[in-house]
Amino acid sequence: MRKSEPLQRVVDHMATHLGVSPSRILLLFGETELSPTATPRTLKLGVADIIDCVVLASSPEASEMPQLLQLRVQGKEKHQTLEVSLSPDSPLKTLMSRYEEAMGLSGHKLSFFFDGTKLSGKELPADLGMESGDLIEVWG
């Protein structure tokens, strides 16, 4: 994992590996709960640091948690398509970073649009009314 990648990538990987909802994955560094939007760089983590992964028990509240959205990110070329699973309450910056890395475009100036509106990355899918299958366009 790169120091600039959000921990949401670890949460998603562990959820898939363990067959549970990402909302049930809790990352801990010592006694401190880690935010999925944090990065190893912002947390000043090194290669020897150990992050614990805890699977929270399923509860009635957990079943009401929003499911992952399957969003499609499309560049101007047909081969520049990426399907991204994202929690409705995760900032879209997570999706943008995954796309840039997957397409080898890290460091390029890209603009992301949803329904004709330019995205800053701070928006949440839930706030924009996004649903699974929605398309985010990339220009740059």
Describe the structure.
There is one protein chain. The protein has helices spanning 8-18, 60-63, 93-102; strands at 25-29, 32-33, 52-55, 69-74, 81-86, 111-114, 117-119, 135-139. It contains 3 helices and 8 strands. It has 2 domains: 8-63, Ubiquitin-like (UB roll) (Roll), CATH 3.10.20.90; 69-139, Ubiquitin-like (UB roll) (Roll), CATH 3.10.20.90. The mean pLDDT is 88. It is of the alpha+beta class.
Topology, element by element:
Blueprint: H1 8-18, E1 25-29, E2 32-33, E3 52-55, H2 60-63, E4 69-74, E5 81-86, H3 93-102, E6 111-114, E7 117-119, E8 135-139
Parallel strand pairs: 4-8
Antiparallel strand pairs: 1-2, 1-3, 4-5, 6-7, 6-8
Helices, by number, come to 3
Helix content: 10-25%
Radius of gyration based on Cα positions:
16 Å
CATH homologous superfamily grouping of the largest domain: Phosphatidylinositol 3-kinase Catalytic Subunit, Chain A, domain 1
CATH architect. name of the largest domain: Roll
Alpha-beta classification: alpha+beta
Query: Kindly, what is the distance between the CA atoms of the first and last residues, rounded to a whole number of angstroms?
Result: 25 Å
Categorize the overall geometry: globular
The order of strands across the largest sheet is 5-4-8-6-7
Q: Main beta sheet: strand number and arrangement?
A: 5 strands, mixed
What would the CATH topology of the largest domain be?
Ubiquitin-like (UB roll)
- How do the helices and strands follow one another from N- to C-terminus? HEEEHEEHEEE
Low-confidence runs of at least 5 consecutive residues: none
Q: Roughly what is the average pLDDT, rounded to an integer? A: 88
